[in-house]
Amino acid sequence: MRFLTTFQTADFFDTLVSLAVAFVLGMLIGAERQYRTRTAGLRTNVLVAVGAAAFVDLAMHLAGADGAVRVIAYVVSGIGFLGAGVIMKEGMNVRGLNTAATLWSSAAVGCCAGGDLVAQAVALTVFVIAGNTLLRPLVNAINRIPFDERTSEATYSVRLTADGGAADRLREHIEKRLEQADYPVAEVEVESVEHADDKVEIVATLVSTAVEPNELDAVVAELGKESGVDHATWETSTKD
């Protein structure tokens, strides 16, 4: 068998060390994700780290450092497809970005372990875990800061609930009135209202990423007085 002539004990133990380091470090990263009940938990992060380490280690043994660099490039791009699988869009909200970034980082840890850069792999693991734990209080503190429409970047939309027969007229009017108030419209959509066949909802999305609340309140109040309009309001959604 070719295995008997090519087997090198030192190389084999080098591979074991690389895989073991990737396993332990991936487990540390994944344990935090599992505790937070995230989509990609302990086993997923371990497998990503070990898999990346195995590919890089194999390339190191077959083609040296140059081969490992090429494999790492493929790992970096390939892990993006796995990360995309945990990202979900629910309405205007996107979930799973942090989980995808953690998987990407686990792959980086595995690449370091596979490339025999154990100290770097450990350091990277510390930074990843710190990012997912120590930064949480800071994130929560920032999220508690009151939202300021005049300085914060967001997507703003004006919504009118109106009679279906007046939709075309109101669609043109809302766009014209908002532009007069220096709030140009990016797009206007007309949506049907559930359980009300004769009603529609006209949604005008603004180009502006910041508004003056009092000005927009006045414009919306004026639009709400138009004939055929039942209700008028404006809303904010933060950017992805």
TrEMBL record:
Pfam families: MgtC, MgtC_SapB_C
MgtC/SapB/SrpB/YhiD N-terminal domain boundaries: 19-139
Keyword Cell division: no
Membrane topology: Multi-pass membrane protein
Cellular compartment(s): Cell inner membrane; Cell membrane
Keyword terms: Cell inner membrane, Cell membrane, Membrane, Transmembrane, Transmembrane helix
GO cellular component: plasma membrane
Main location: membrane
TM helices/strands, residue ranges: 12-30, 42-62, 68-88
Classification via InterPro entries: MgtC-like_C (IPR048640), MgtC/SapB/SrpB/YhiD_fam (IPR003416), MgtC_SapB_SrpB_YhiD_N (IPR049177)
Domain MgtC-like C-terminal, first and last residues per copy: 156-234
Role played: Virulence factor required for growth in low Mg(2+) medium and for intramacrophage survival. May be involved in regulating membrane potential by activating Na(+)/K(+)-ATPase.
Family label: Belongs to the MgtC/SapB family.
Protein name: Protein MgtC
Protein's organism: Rhodopseudomonas palustris (strain ATCC BAA-98 / CGA009)
